[in-house]
Amino acid sequence: IAGYSDLVNILRIVPGAVVEQSGERGAQTSVFLRGADSDGNKILIDGFDAGDVGGRFDFGPLSTTGKEQVEIYRGPNSSLYGADAAGGVVSLTTPHGTTSFPSFLLEGDLGNFNTSREQLEVAGVHKKLDYYSTYSWLQTGNSIPNDEYHVGTAIGNFGWQPNGSTEIRALVLYGVDAVGAPNTYDFYGISDNAKEGDQDLYLGGILNNQTTAEWRNHFQGGVTRKREQYHQYAPVGELINGNYYGHAILIHGANGYSAMGPAMIDCGPAYGCTYPYNNDRTVNERNLFLYQGDYQLTPHLGLSAGFHVEKETGVYYGTAIQRTNYDYVFGAHGDYRNRFFYTLGLDLGHYDVFGNILSPRAGLGYYLLRPRPGVWGGTRINFSFS
What we know:
A hairpin with a 2-residue loop joins strand 20 and strand 21 (319-336). Helix content is 3%, strand content 61%. It has three helices and 24 strands.
């Protein structure tokens, strides 16, 4: 992860993940896991729901700053994460302070297209408190006119352990970015005079308690506040018959045909369009609380139960949305003679969109040959249903 400045190219190399970006660095990016819709993924940051209302998520402005680990579950797992995980789960984790002294990291990069990146990290442990904080700034001109991009990311992860069985943690993540929206440059021969911007805030608290050697409790609450804006400063191109057109471009089709001419890039007086034009594309607010308890009944059998409640409020292209969703989660996992492994899960959910839903899941694995040296060593058959 440290070798990249954004998550887009990391996700491209994940088997079963298709990444589509609408432009250069910073442009809107969607991830499709095993052919599922891009809004069917559950996106988690330290366990907090980072997606928009309805499941949409833009990976374009998400930097690798403060990302210690990225886990991708490909396939439906709604028995554990709810209906938003119909396509898969992408879970991001921020690091904790680990050194007994304050550690500092300052780094910077320079590249072509007027690209620069700076990052500062401060982390450590003091008695029962661990702390981690970081800030980064990246900017680039990209290679297309009017496609400048910048992103700033600030993260704080603070933990306190009053005793050996209890941990309290507070998390904050704030990101702000803006990227030019040049439109399809090769189709018009000119760039639109527009930009898109985001302001994203995640706040949360976690309480973990190892009540007994077998029983572990996890409480988590948080809020998400996201806003996406679009701003077009002025129209571009030549005014023809009341609308604005780009340059004459020769286009070759895959069927062997070609056509040449200007295409309309911006609407004008003919459609009653005025500039500058501003639009809050999405405004998203989430309030989340969840509980999960895990009990190790025997060394070969573990049980889980939990409760999730989430209130969603948002505006999507002018349409107001307000929903309250609940999930009751039950699960069991274990093995038999370290050769047959199983996971069973059930989610009973109530969603304002479609009412009550029951989501089962089962995963089975059997070692034909136990792990050992050799070509077929460690051969296992897996089956899953959800």
